[in-house]
Specification:
This protein is mainly alpha-helical and about 140 residues long. The chain folds into 2 domains: about 80 residues, Orthogonal Bundle (434 Repressor (Amino-terminal Domain)); about 35 residues.
Length: about 140
Amino acid sequence: MVAAQDSPQAAFARFVRRAIDDAKNERGWTVTDLAAHTGVGRSTVFRWLAGDWQDYPELAKVRDFCDALHVPVAAAMRALGLPEAPAVRRRPEPQSPIDADVRVILARLADPRVPAAEKKLIRDLLRYLARRPVHRAG
């Protein structure tokens, strides 16, 4: 007999909890931020955390969650007790210069080699810029 903690729901809930904790510690993300960056709704994230699902999570949502957090999809599949999902070739989306800058900033915030003081400086500067009033020309 399999113990409740060994169920796919419990194992996936632990996987999701670790990913959320890492996103919070490394990037300062809340669950709302995580939902915005991954495209997985808050209610879905909370259901995953609670192990409140009968049918397996949608593969596309799991992939988006893992991609945004730079977590291998294979780790999610192992937590679910499934074989690794086949790779899906996605058409590369055109990147604007802003997208490239945001990716560099996110990479620095996620990089364990970047000192915590530098990460705090980046987050503080982003908060300042986000709250700064917009000055329109003319």
